[in-house]
Amino acid sequence: MIRLIVGLGNPGPEYEHTRHNAGFWWVDAAARELGARLAFDRAYHGLVARANRPQGPVWLLRPMTFMNLSGRSAGPLARFFKIAPAEILVVHDELDLLPGQMKLKQGGGAAGHNGLKDLLAHLGSPDFWRLRIGIGHPGARDEVANWVLRKPPLDDRIAMDKCIADSLAALPLMLDGAMDRAVMKIHAGPQRPKPPRPAHLAPAPAEPGAAAAERPAAPGAGQVPS
Length: 226
Known about the structure:
By secondary structure, this protein is of the alpha/beta class. The protein is 32% helix and 16% strand. The protein has helices at 22-34, 70-80, 114-123, 144-148, 154-167, 171-176, 179-187, 210-214, and strands at 4-7, 39-41, 46-51, 58-63, 88-94, 102-106, 129-134. It has a 7-stranded mixed beta sheet, with helices on both faces. Helix 2 runs parallel beside helix 3. The protein is globular and about 45 Å long.
């Protein structure tokens, strides 16, 4: 069961629409979905919202510490409310996925993501869940820093927004603890059509009259049916 959702990003209007803030966009959408309002809480260095559910409250968090200090915000909140790492969902941008793609998994390393690095340090465990929102890769490692801090082109932003909207359909499953079903829902996509059969494997067309020649004759005089 997910009890805390942390969206990663950088504070300030200059970063609001940059690729690195995909986690912020998701948490904003989740707060609207749950009817919760994010407000700054000095104790947790971030924007916090509480959504009340019959199973207990769900906390949403946008750290205002800048990306590389995200754990400084999420760690104290998780400790105060006794939320285990396995009950935390972290939503972040992912270079290794294209815009419009997303993956949900539990555990793993930071893979060079500064926000995840700090969360690992403050939570003391890699067991939290990660929803990775694809932003694409610039193609060269030395261009990554500028890439994540730039606004995506319109087509990419539309694809990312659709990805966020689609993934919110799995939010009730995650809040209920049905993580296997949430993974299947988020990873589900259109089925690819089967490729056409290679010509050299396709059956040769029958010659005219061949079918009749190969068909066994009807039993008649001098022929006994088996």
